[in-house]
Specification:
349 residues, Rossmann fold, flat, 8 strands, Helicase, Ruva Protein, domain 3, Zinc Finger, Delta Prime, domain 3
Length: 349
């Protein structure tokens, strides 16, 4: 009963050590979800599933029915397997949370409860879970096994990509596999999609850096937020180095400025609400953020504390001027990148 890595958890399961409770959480849903499904399939074989496998979606699960499913005895099988997908304790009210904690605290030996909690919104910052999710994870660690599915390092994701490609008959160098992993932000689901595409294209041959650049969709989502924060904090070394890297990797300046703009808007809204004494939930509600995007505001709240409102306002104003110039003038890509760099320099000056 502890917090284990997915590798340690898999090793225990293979050795025949099965817990009554598993909580799988983390940002890398592409790794988490298949792992949970594979465990459920292993513990409840096809011939036993009609009577002994009970699946619930956390968004609309009936807690009374969940409790009954956990407590029922297995029918012509070794165990009952109950799965909950998409859990976020922040979305449960106090009464619902209390009932769920009572359920996980009283699981019979003949039942295994597998809870999946994937996604960014479980976290209050880059490392820590929100308070409710943290308390629930701590409880589950005392009662069973808890695993966090965080994104792999570039080297680990690169090895996984190379192995997947090799199984499909393609070859790739270590450096190019890591380049692919970095391009995919080490997201398992996204990396899987791109490796399948590259393997089909290679048709048994070797995949080159040029193939990756030509075929794979580039992602800049995370760069927008990190650039916005570092521009506001005056971290010129990071900002200009990252813009140069994105330029070299073939990113377009207009979409890049758009994601910076989106992140700056989130930070500006958070700062205004924080200054007015509102919390991130009220901020999200006032500005119409969808539930699954509330974490964006929460992150912005944690970042904007020691950044002045005047500096944020300056950044937003200069960015609007830059966007207008790029959209209304005939500019080359190089000139547009220069405009982005001039905007960043003006904010940091």
């Amino acid at each position: 009963m502890a917090q284990l890595s997915p590798t340690e958890c898999e090793k225990n399961i293979r050795s025949g050590s099965v817990e009554s409770l598993y909580l799988f959480y983390g940002r890398d849903s592409g790794a988490l979800t298949p792992f949970a499904k594979k465990l459920a399939a292993k513990l409840c074989p096809p011939e036993a599933r009609v009577m002994n496998l009970h699946s619930f979606d956390a968004e609309n699960m009936e807690l009374e029915l969940l409790s009954d499913s956990v407590q029922v005895l297995p029918m012509f099988a070794e165990r009952v397997v109950v799965t909950i997908s998409g859990l976020n304790m922040e979305k449960l009210n106090k009464s619902q949370g209390d009932i769920l904690r009572k359920i996980v605290g009283d699981i019979p030996e003949t039942t295994t409860l597998i809870i999946s909690a994937p996604g960014e919104e479980l976290y209050r910052n880059k490392r820590s879970l929100t308070d409710k999710n943290k308390r629930f994870a701590d409880l589950c660690a005392k009662l069973g096994t808890v695993c966090e599915f965080s994104y792999k390092s570039v080297s680990e994701a690169g090895r996984s990509a190379a192995s997947a490609l090799e199984k499909q008959g393609a070859k790739i160098s270590r450096r190019d596999a890591e380049y692919l992993a970095e391009l995919c932000l080490c997201e398992t689901a996204y990396l899987k999609m791109e490796t399948e595409k590259l393997a089909a294209y290679a048709n048994g041959g070797e995949i080159t850096r040029a193939d990756i650049d030509a075929l794979c969709i580039r992602r800049v989502d995370s760069d927008g937020y990190s650039l916005a924060v570092n521009i506001l904090r005056g971290n010129a070394v990071f900002v200009f180095k990252r813009i140069a890297e994105l330029k070299k990797q073939g990113f377009e300046p207009t979409p890049l400025l758009a994601v910076i703009s989106s992140s700056l808007t989130d930070i500006y809204r958070a700062k205004l609400c924080r200054s007015a004494g509102l919390d991130h939930r009220q901020c999200a509600a006032d500005f119409g953020y969808a539930k699954n995007r509330e974490f964006v505001v929460k992150n912005a709240f944690s970042e904007c504390g020691n950044i002045s409102l005047e500096r944020i306002h300056k950044a937003v104003t200069l960015l609007a001027d830059t966007e207008h110039k790029m959209k209304t003038r005939s500019m080359t890509t190089a000139a547009q990148f220069l405009a982005v760099e001039q905007f960043a320099a003006a904010v940091m000056s």
